Amino acid sequence: MKELKIGGKIFTNRLFTGTGKFSSKKLIPKMLKSSGSEMITVALRRVDLNAQEENILEYIPKNITLLPNTSGARNHKEAIRIARLAREAGCGNFIKIEVINDMKYLFPDNSETIKATEILVKEGFNVLPYIGPDLITAKKLVDVGASAVMPLGSPIGSNRGLESQNMLEIIIENIDIPVIIDAGIGKPSQAAKAMEIGADAVLVNTAIATSDNPIIMGKAFSMAVKAGRLAYETKLGEEKKYASASSPLNGIIDFE
Amino acid sequence: MKKVKINGTYITVKHDTISDYITHKNLDANKIIVEHNSNIIKEKFWSKTPIQDGDKLEILNFVGGG
Description:
The structure holds 2 protein chains of 2 kinds.
Chain A lengths: L3 E3 L2 E3 L3 E4 L8 H9 L3 E8 L18 E4 L7 H12 L6 E4 L12 H13 L3 E6 L3 H9 L6 E2 L13 H10 L5 E3 L5 H9 L4 E4 L1 H4 L4 H20 L23
Parallel strand pairs in A: 3-4, 3-10, 4-5, 6-7, 7-8, 9-10
Antiparallel strand pairs in A: 1-2
Helix pairs in contact in A: 1-8, 2-3, 6-8
Chain B lengths: L1 E5 L2 E5 L4 H7 L8 E4 L2 E3 L14 E9 L2
Parallel strand pairs in B: 1-5
Antiparallel strand pairs in B: 1-2, 3-4, 3-5
């Protein structure tokens, strides 16, 4: 399988994961091992000064690329502030821009995301913006130097898969930087589908973290992503209107 | 004694510097990020940054998120 390069880093596994919603943080390193995922998201929040918890970083092996998100940001200024704070932790310069001011669908604000991306790219960040699946937004993000684009499949945590498939295919066909489908992927078959239509990678959090067994589910998703990608690289057969026989039409015995 | 807003809550503190407060709360310096009056303060400057009445501190860390 071909390598995936984002922000100068090479990824051999095209399933990216998230640390949200796990019933126990102890499952995270085991899920990372079973899935082989090489990049994982985290959020930035206030320390609970009255109840010292173990830090999430204790559960993420050092060789995994950390992808902090700017969740909580409602506009580009807040996203930029969170990004700068996240980088201060010293875990690299990858940042997932997540600007959300719609609390019903959690749809990202594409125009604020573009503004944040433009400024953060100039500050040396590797920016992976999470966006609504809009080609024009994706093109603008390429122009301002994003390292990848991350269009959503369906609303965060909805498990509805690639509801935006047509729009995703348009983006994949017309954008040259990596396209990572993020949000809404609820089943391994949906992850495989994302890869079959040409996505460079997928990001899955809820479906793995909230399953009965995130370790096994992580592995299932990983297998699906590999299967979909292999199929895509080998070129899938075309869909046809009529049947085309699989067994020869000549040499059949005489039934008379 | 100084009245300081720390992580959104007004607290009365006697500590002179950020580093004093961090040590008092037994926080792991490697795992936290500090913003003082909207400025990010690198760890090496914590002992040199005084806490004054009316200051605003945000002490942050990474948590699970998607």
